[in-house]
Amino acid sequence: MTGYPFALVLSALLVLLLLHLLRRRRLREKYVALWFGLAIAVVVLAAFPSLTFRLAALVGVATPVNLLVVLALAVLLGICVQLGSELSGLEDRARTLAEEVAILRHDVERLTGGRPHPVEVPQASLTPDQDEDPASALGER
Q: Could you list the residue range(s) of the whole structural domain that residue 3 is in?
């Protein structure tokens, strides 16, 4: 028995998991597209194993398994770079928001004569299908 049926079943389970996470808003569409592409590539390579052998011969790799490992590493590296880029953008946004809050707090203290001004912040209730993203709690997306 070969590993091709296992790869097909694993890809089908991955697609079902992705659809579930997407429906529950635990994963955004831009990330799901990458994982769907990866699942489709695994299905194609598992359905047509000769394609893997041809690609390995074309690239000059001794065995198809080595080619798949290198491709998997390349995909993981691409995901790491993309997530690092997203994280950098979010850090910049958080810093900007913290600076704006500090400026607004300074303005409020200046206008109230240095007295602390109690500010009531309404607590947004999250429904079970919302994640803990503040934008989704406020209905923004």
A: 1-47
